[in-house]
Specification:
Layout (H helix, E strand, L loop, with lengths): L1 H10 L1 H19 L3 H26 L14 H15 L1 H5 L7 H17 L1 H4 L3 H22 L1 H88 L6 H29 L7 E4 H18 L3 E4 L5 E4 L1 H18 L8 E9 L2 E8 L33 H11 L3 E7 L3 E9 L44 E5 L3 H11 L5 E5 L2 H11 L5 E5 L8 H12 L5 E5 L4 H9 L3 E4 L4 H12 L4
Parallel strand pairs: 2-4, 8-9, 8-10, 10-11, 11-12
Antiparallel strand pairs: 1-3, 4-5, 5-7, 6-7
């Protein structure tokens, strides 16, 4: 407040000085009283004193060091204001002619003083003492002058200036209240803003902690599951003609179920990390529907249902592979939640024009979903009617992946369901504008879907249980700091490789490279190694040691978005734990055949 009073002393100096000069000039020309110069001198002294106090105080107490204003009371700032008001209160005694009341000159001075009062409201409204210091002396001077002369004109002048000053005082107090309320609201808004900023920081920190927790938990779970997948497949291979083969098959199936859950979590992490990118281009919807029928038709028939696809001649500007994954997930969801046992008979896939876009819907005739569940169906792990979390009814991740992929495609998802009559899940996509359809199933960052839609995005499964490498069995270097994982990899690889050099440290791997030299065909390197060097850097050092671009496969159990992005940006072949043995066989064969 003191700071604002100082600023007004500077800002109003020139207007006050001009007003005093104008009034003094007018009354000198009308009355030729020498007292006019006395009044003008007093006004100049009051104005200069007020300005000097403001400038000296601001120089001694700069705003940077005293943001709340100079220390001390308000008396130094009120004193000059009070003196200036007293000078204007003396105006009628020094400016008007002595003797009888000159009504015209008194009225003219009254108008000038009322204008001064009106213009002073912003300058004095900040503080009640300032209002009184400015209004009281000025009002008393004019009112006393009118009362002393008496008569109707004198008393009218007295009463008029008192009433006007009272109105100005009320106006100044009302403005002060508005300013105080505005300042209080500003403080509240700043406090709320700080509170929201703090809460946002807490939420971001909690989200980062949650991401790190799930990434660490996923990585730590993937390690034993990865080893278990390889060991169970090796056991199934060794017990091919043994009575315990069915037990080995059950162990492999249970391990695969856990792997599917972890891989579904990886799909979400990949999308969130930005490593799945849409490659939109004009594509005929009939081609997408044909691929969908080929993939999902056998599964729908196996569930005792029929799949009807109403193809259309529309062309979409979209990523065909990602759209195919969306529709496959929706059909898979219908198979699991609307089988014939629950009243379902068919699954219908339709495409209808909606505004400037196209709505593609997957409809079933199952039991439907109650309205209170609909807003949450696209959330992760949210399931209806599966409190026991039976994996046979899904994992609760498929629709979450659909929603994320729809955003990548620039689309919007939705659902409509009527209990007892079925559900419809849809995605709205833009139509292509004036372009012919093309085939676009091979350009996406998402691998083409195969018949098993539970398989994650980065896998293209092989349905044979045999894993054959070429006639020239490769010489493999394995670098993994987990002993159990390394032993499982070595046991599984042994029948298919001429040699498997299992190492746990970069130094051991470099020793193998120095010893084997050109005999090595391919490296299998874990991404997260003990020490400061990760798998990407290890591959670079081993290639420098070998003196050639030795083919390498990066194996990782990380799902943290930053690590997933780093793995893909490395340019290496990447496979995620738990690795399907069939996929590992394929990738190993492809890498061994790559010249390096």
């Amino acid at each position: 407040m003191r700071r604002r009073l100082l600023s007004f002393a500077r800002k109003t100096f020139v207007p006050h000085a001009l007003s005093a000069l104008l009034v003094a000039g007018v009354y000198w020309s009308l009355t030729h009283r020498r007292a006019v110069f006395l009044w003008l001198g007093l006004a100049a002294l009051a104005l200069v004193a007020r300005l000097a106090v403001a400038l000296v105080t601001e120089r001694r107490f700069p705003e940077a060091d005293h943001p709340d204003g100079p220390p001390g009371g308000e008396r130094p700032y009120i004193g000059p204001l009070l003196a200036l008001s007293a000078v204007w209160g003396l105006a009628p005694f020094l400016l008007l002619p002595a003797g009888a009341l000159n009504v015209e000159l008194a009225a003219l001075l009254g108008v000038a003083m009322c204008a001064m009062l009106m213009g002073s409201v912003p300058a004095v409204a900040l503080w009640r003492p300032a209002i009184a210091a400015w209004l009281v002396p000025l009002t008393i001077g004019m009112a006393v002058y009118g009362a002393l002369h008496g008569g109707p004109a004198g008393w009218f002048l007295c009463l008029g200036i008192v009433l006007f000053s009272t109105w100005i005082a009320r106006l100044a107090l009302a403005q002060r209240h508005m300013i105080a309320h505005s300042v209080a609201m500003q403080f509240q808004m700043e406090a709320l803003s700080e509170q929201l900023t703090a809460q946002k920081g807490d939420l971001e920190r909690l989200n980062e902690e949650r991401t790190r927790f799930f990434a660490s938990a996923s990585h730590d779970l993937r390690q034993p599951v990865h080893a278990l997948a390889l060991l169970s497949d090796a056991m199934r291979r060794e017990l091919a003609d043994h009575p315990a083969r069915p037990m080995a098959e059950q162990v492999a199936a249970a391990t695969a179920s856990v792997g599917h859950l972890l891989d579904a979590m990886l799909d979400i992490s990949r999308i969130d990390a930005g490593t799945v990118q849409a490659v939109p281009k004009p594509v005929a919807l009939v081609d997408v529907f044909a691929q969908l029928s080929q993939i999902q038709g056998p599964r729908v028939e196996a569930a005792g249902l029929s799949l009807r696809v109403q193809a259309s001649g529309h062309t979409l500007d979209t990523d065909a592979a990602l759209l195919l994954r969306v529709l496959s997930n929706l059909v898979d969801n219908a198979i699991k939640h609307a089988p014939r046992a629950l009243g379902g008979r068919r699954i219908l896939v339709t495409a209808r024009r909606r505004g400037a876009g196209l709505r593609i819907a997957v409809r079933d005739e199952g039991p439907g979903v109650a309205a209170e569940h609909l807003p949450r169906l696209y959330e992760e792990f949210y399931q209806v009617g599966n409190p026991e979390r039976d994996a046979a009814h899904g994992l609760g991740i498929g629709l979450a992946i659909v929603r994320r992929l729809a955003l990548l495609l620039g689309g919007r998802t939705g659902v409509h369901s009527v209990p007892g009559r079925g559900s419809a899940f849809w995605i709205d996509l833009p139509l292509a504008a004036g372009q012919g359809p093309v085939s676009g199933f091979g350009d996406s960052t998402l691998a083409p879907m195969a018949a098993d839609t539970s398989t994650p995005m980065h896998l293209e499964p092989v349905h044979s249980h045999t894993h054959s490498l070429d006639a020239r069995r490769p010489n493999v270097l394995l670098l993994d700091d987990e002993r159990a994982v390394g032993d499982a990899m070595r046991l599984w690889l042994a029948p298919y490789c001429s040699s498997v050099h299992a190492t746990r440290t970069l130094a051991e791997a470099q020793a193998v490279v120095a010893r084997e030299g050109a005999a090595l065909d391919v490296m299998l390197v874990d991404f997260r190694l003990s020490g400061a060097v990760n798998g990407i850097e290890a591959v670079q050092r081993l290639r420098r040691a070998a003196g050639r671009e030795l083919p390498a496969i990066l194996i990782t159990g990380d799902t943290e978005p930053a690590r997933v992005r780093s793995a893909y940006e490395s340019g290496l072949a990447v496979v995620f734990k738990p690795v399907q043995p069939q996929l590992l066989a394929q990738m190993l064969q492809a890498a061994a055949a790559t010249p390096g």
